[in-house]
């Protein structure tokens, strides 16, 4: 369920109360504000890439970037094993955003954020990530 989006410079979202109902796993301090920051982080990500959305990388990465930038799930992330991190990285369909947050933070501890953003849109990104393990 989409709860917010920022398109063509217009931010649209559900109400804070509806967000809490639709996305109970996101219950944390300042959850609604973090949702809005998450959507703005997607725009920032695209701007950093000079408007080229194709360079944002796979779903887990661009959602993980927005979760990281918004400070979402900092105290509510699962502790993923290495196998679970790779499962998250290799899954093409949408899954639990908490897994994206955990996987992104794992790699953000091993490489500079700027380098991760640069590499995410390149062929062989997952091979490069394997070197960070």
Quote the average pLDDT. Answer: 96
Q: Strand share of the residues? A: 5-15%
> Going across the major beta sheet, what is the strand order?
1-2
Query: Termini, distance in Å?
Result: 33 Å
The tally of helices reads 7
What sequence of helices (H) and strands (E) makes up the elements? EEHHHHHHH
Key structural traits:
two-stranded antiparallel sheet; 2 strands; 7 helices; mainly alpha; 133 residues
Describe this structure in words.
- There is one protein chain.
- The chain is mainly alpha-helical and 133 residues long.
- It has helices at residues 16-22, 31-48, 59-70, 82-90, 97-108, 113-120, 125-132, and strands at 4-7, 10-13.
- Strands 1-2 form a two-stranded antiparallel sheet.
- α2 crosses α3 (59-70) and α4 (82-90) packs across α5 (97-108).
Summarize the structure.
It contains 7 helices and 2 strands; from the N terminus they run ββααααααα. With 133 residues, it is mainly α.
Secondary-structure blueprint:
Blueprint: E1 4-7, E2 10-13, H1 16-22, H2 31-48, H3 59-70, H4 82-90, H5 97-108, H6 113-120, H7 125-132
Antiparallel strand pairs: 1-2
């Amino acid at each position: 369920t989409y709860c917010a989006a920022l398109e063509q410079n217009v931010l649209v979202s559900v109400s804070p109360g509806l967000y809490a109902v639709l996305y109970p796993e996101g219950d944390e301090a300042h959850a609604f504000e973090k949702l809005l920051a998450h959507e703005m982080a997607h725009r920032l990500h695209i701007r950093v890439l000079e408007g080229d959305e194709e360079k944002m990388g796979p779903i887990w990465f661009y959602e993980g970037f927005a979760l990281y930038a918004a400070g979402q799930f900092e105290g509510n992330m699962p502790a993923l094993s290495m196998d679970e991190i790779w499962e998250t990285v290799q899954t093409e369909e949408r899954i639990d955003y908490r897994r994206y947050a955990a996987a992104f933070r794992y790699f953000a501890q091993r490489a500079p954020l700027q380098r991760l953003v640069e590499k995410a849109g390149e062929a062989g990104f997952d091979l490069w990530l394997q070197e960070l393990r």
